Amino acid sequence: MSRWRVAPLVGTLLLIVSRVVVAQTITVSGNPPALKITAAVAGSEPTSVSNNTTTYTVVTPNPANRTYKITAQLNALMPANVTLTATLAAPTGGTSVGPVALDLTARDMVTGIPKSTNATQSITYQLSATVLAGVVPSTNRIVTLTVLKFP
Fold first, then answer.
1. E-assigned strands of the chain?
2. Going along 20-81, which residue ranges are E strands?
3. Contact, 24 vs 59, CB < 8 A?
4. What is the layout of strands, in order, in the sheet containing 82-88?
């Protein structure tokens, strides 16, 4: 009789282990170089700068009828009148939301990422400011990307 009780327990343990192994993940290739606004046309706003040398890799598991999304948020607000925008290219089957101004709130960046995705895509950052920003001391911000079930 004890054999029958052990078999269901082993099956349950295997299921728990397999769920951990197939979790969705996202990794980033590294940090982009510093973005510095150094030019402006007389009578116009400062000239924004951008960089697209960073990539992300997203891996999603294979449960039936499941899609995923990627969100992004900053660890601290940008200085007044300064905006950091990010655009994530979408893997096949997903949809990029386009350029998104980042702040402390997690913002959707890519939606509808299908199950069984393993793709590397580009990230484009753009830094812009208005003349009201004035001279802003150099600061760092951390952008956190997260993969979540969607919808």
1. 25-28, 49-59, 67-74, 82-88, 95-96, 100-101, 107-114, 118-129, 143-150
2. 25-28, 49-59, 67-74
3. yes
4. 25-28, 49-59, 118-129, 82-88, 100-101
Residues of the chain with pLDDT under 50: 1-22
pLDDT at res. 12: 28
Give pLDDT, residue 99: 98
pLDDT for the residue 48: 95
Q: Helix, strand or coil for residue 113?
A: strand
- Return the pLDDT at 62: 84
With H, G, I as helix, E, B as strand and everything else as coil, classify residue 50: strand
Helix, strand counts (H, E) of the chain: 1, 9
**Region for 22 from its dihedrals, namely left if φ exceeds 0, alpha if ψ lies in -120 to 50, beta otherwise:** alpha
25: left (phi over 0), alpha (psi -120 to 50) or beta: beta
The residue behind tokens 């170089």 is 33
Q: What is the rounded distance in angstroms from the CA atom of residue 67 to the CA atom of residue 44? A: 43
